[in-house]
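step 3/5: co-fold with zinc ion
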Amino acid sequence: MANGYDVNWVMNITDVGHLVSDEDDGEDKMEKGARREGKTAWEVADFYTQDFVQSLDLLNISVPRENLKKATDAIPEQIQLVQTLEQKGYTYVIDDGVYFDTTKLDDYGKLGKIDLTALRAGERVAFNEQKRATTDFALWKFTPKGQKRDMEWDSPWGRGFPGWHIECSALAMKHLAETIDIHAGGIDHIPVHHTNEIAQSEAATGKPFANTWVHSNFLTVDGVKLSKSLGNSYTLHDLINKGFHSLDYRFFALQSHYRTQANFTWDGLEAARVRRHTLCSLADIRYQDAAIRVDVASLEGLYTDMLTALSDDLDTPAALALLSQLDSLLDGSQSHDHPSARSDDGLTAVLKKIENLLGIGLLDGPDISDEQKSLLSDRAKARADKNWGKSDQIRDTLNDQGVEIRDTDHGQIWSRSLPPTAG
Ligand SMILES: [Zn+2]
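step 4/5: write tokens
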């Protein structure tokens, strides 16, 4: 979008069909969660959808609100897609559902370059004996006999619910096109989920499903994979409760390229917090009354370089490294010939452009209050009168309010002190 593309972007919400195992066995995550919490699957889905969107907002991650599509809002389309696959001879029905016959495709597994011979030879423990091949996957699952699910629908094959993979293909075709430009997701989805999306989509349409796949890598904590049993995972709210800003985490995350595995440590998050604070303090220069000249042309150059870095496979570490130029460009120590020509509107405009690229909250800090401003001018007067006692006293008062003062050749420059964290 920074490059001028008009992006039509859909984000799907898997509110049905994702089973506890990534295979087609085990319970439905939503139905299981509902029973645990004494709610319906619909309530659980709604709660986590809202929590997800709120967290994205806190992280400055844009949400395509009109294009946030739930799997349960496209049940007829999913049934229709399975019917198309059935007509083309790609499906078979067994006791627990309708399955996709992966042996009918010559290029099944091409995304992850899966070694099918090895995979299909290795029988798995929970292998469904009615499945023709290990790689075959459910398109539609039947509600188990004698059970009643919160989420179930009638279909030509029997009452039940869609398999996990079919929603993505159906939603993409419904809201975008049979071939989409970019499909994103986590690398863990390459071997099964995205592989199966490709299989069913391309079998149905005869066209490529996605031109480009963008897969983000994992996050570890203290070098260890996140897992429930280790209790080493944190929510965004945990970080906020410890006194971090949600954007400190965003800053931390941007330091790693999305393709590389990132490792979370509290020290790493603290370093990101301190660095983000420094950058925001530098950007506070736009409020200053001191006669500071800022080289706006160099800032424009910085913006262009950052955009170039991000346009090269989203190189966020490179873009953040470029930000170190702000340390000298905005520190207020540059000489000035015209004391009256203080920072102009061009400064805020270019800082906004830089912020729009990164979303790190560079311009979120408010100006100091009118009372603090008048304290500053009292202090300037006291200094002109060589009344050092009064000048120091005012500085201490401002320090107590979280505003630090630096005296430069161009006058006083204030900055916000780094707030403490809870631990
Ligand atoms: Zn998907």
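step 5/5: annotate
The CA atoms of residues 369 and 375 lie 10 Å apart.
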